[in-house]
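Hi everyone, sorry if this is the wrong subforum. Our group has a chain we'd like a structural model of before ordering constructs, and none of us has done structure prediction before. Sequence below.
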Amino acid sequence: MKKVGILGGTFDPPHYGHLLIANEVQSALELDKIWFMPNHEPPHKKKPESVEDEDRLHMLELAIAENANFSIQPIEMDRKGPSYTVDTMKILHTEYPDHQFYFIIGADMIEYLPKWHDIDILVNLVQFVGVKRKSYSHQTDYPVLYIDVPAIDVSSSMIRDRVKKGQSVRYLLPDSVIDYIEEKQLYGSSKSIRLS
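Answer:
Right subforum, don't worry. Here is the predicted structure as tokens:
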């Protein structure tokens, strides 16, 4: 039985916080792989419309390129409309019957679990792995494995805002992703703006 961690998100853009969480969970639980699962349209928040799915996918490929244990699972990006985790996991269980799935969620999502679509079915399809953060409650009636991860206070929205303002994002995300953002002039950036 292969043990696979799944880290979902918009990855708009992917940053070191995502990579750190994936690495720490893989190490702590001795997982075989981490699948990064970008979604097309998350049901719980509106996706920014400034960047195409292809750009997010390419940035994610660049971000994980140096880790052989990281790969991309594009199933939710391939489906149009909102993607519910329970539907995705039903499909993955059928396609990968020899895999045990560990679904990684942030502390904000632990509190939100009761509102997840068909959560009572989903808890039988995955083992939730919660990343602890001091400012959030970790109380839940659902089975969650908790992993301590060093705090890195970075978010995709903060990076998008900094890029738009022409501020440095060095050390917040991989240089290859910064280069791509500059080259494609994403998030309101300009080729004349140096982000390092």
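For your construct planning: DSSP finds eight helices and six strands in the chain. The chain has a mean pLDDT of 89.
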